[in-house]
Amino acid sequence: MPSETTIKSSSTPPNRLALRGDLLDFSAQPAWGVLDSPAVRFQPDHWLLIADGRIQGSQAAEPDESWHKVDHSGRLIMPGFVDTHVHCPQLDVIASYGTELLDWLNTYTFPAECRYADPAVAQAGAERFLDALLAHGTTAAVVFSTVHKVSAEALFAAAAERGMRLITGKVLMDRHAPAALLDDVASAERDCIDLIDRWHGQGPRGRLAYAVTPRFAPTSSAAQLAMAGALCRADASLYMQTHVAENRAEVRWVSDLFPQARSYLDVYDQLGLLHPRAVLAHGIWLDDEDRQALLRRGAQLAFCPSSNLFLGSGLFDWAAAAGTGVPVSVASDVGGGTSLSMQRNLLDAYKVQALAGQRLSAWAALHAATRGAAEGLGLTHELGHFGTNTLADVCVWDWACGPVAQARDAVAQNLHERVFAWMCLSDERNLVSSYVAGKISYHRKT
Ligand code: GUN
Ligand code: ZN
After folding, report:
1. pTM, 2 dp
2. In this predicted structure, what is the pLDDT of residue 4?
3. DSSP run (H or E) holding 319
4. In angstroms, what is the span from residue 14 Cα to ligand 2's centroid?
5. Which of 110, 114, 280, 358 has CB atoms 3.0–4.6 Å from 353's, for a disulfide?
6. 243 CB-near residues (< 8 Å, 6+ apart)
7. Which of helix, strand or coil describes residue 396?
């Protein structure tokens, strides 16, 4: 079993932390299908040096006594995962039976989101949600709240307390939902402007950012989507998040609602919602023209494999997106998705690709969930890898938990084989510790 020894020195400044273990991160995007990629940085039994919450470097030699040392030798240390599409209030409806998207929204999701009008529910929900992310090895996220301003505020406040990189915003929806979940163009604009003034670029180390958040085309009028586009045009530092082309009935509904648009994606494009800080979830039912539009605008897709499978939405064509040059990240989309664990979602992504006759390497998958996601969000200066001066959002994992995974780990013949088996067989139970900007934010009890 790996040893864990914490060596404390009374004279150690608390801001100098050294973590020992097998360090794995990426210097660039590994090419598809290449298993011995030069973009993989694996440093077995090294020390990761962290000062003032920032990564200073790594070394094989044990650092001196000026460092607070935590020995995780025999464990895997990676950058924290980035979940680029997940819904805070939907933890309450994860694993709900028997529906596709539109029925699932009406039957389970909208009723759960109604409860977030209550500030106490919103605050408790935000704290529980962020702690759950940290307990799954996800240290940064792009998050849907609800239509209620208070739900976005609760998330920003809870993320600020934890020092996390969080991108969120109040959901915009002014039609086709229960009355308790509807806003209108004027009040939504006021709420957005107020939230942007108070939270965008704020929080410890400026780690909070606002995302203009139209839920999806069916629940916003053209006037509301135009307002959202105008907000984006007024401040290019704002993010935008929404859903696109997830489910076939949804796609048909959008073509009825917006007959003048060439496609679902074109609705957003015409109204100014596609830009380099736009994150569009799903994108299963896109065509080549849509992918070219995404490329032209610099927008990215969040592939949500467990959600796409669970809600029977369809099989995302990652290779087509990658072939066009559209950035793709991987996201849990809980509660449509069935786990906050990025490994579980990456495993589902592997299976979806396998059905299309393609092979997703552990490198391509883990890069997409770390450095690749950071790149898509314009955040590589801050997170997603172990580069000097990035903030130390770092997770420590057991290579194997339980006899099956341990036996598999023991016979791995090379690094890719070992990491791929880890990706397939591990989940949040393998997580030992999460650090956010060098501060411990989760530690397994046993
Ligand atoms: N489309 C519109 N809203 C949602 C949602 O909450 N989850 C998913 N998966 N798709 C959506
Ligand atoms: Zn979603």
Report:
1. 0.97
2. 38
3. helix 318-324
4. 39
5. 358
6. 215, 216, 280, 281, 282
7. strand
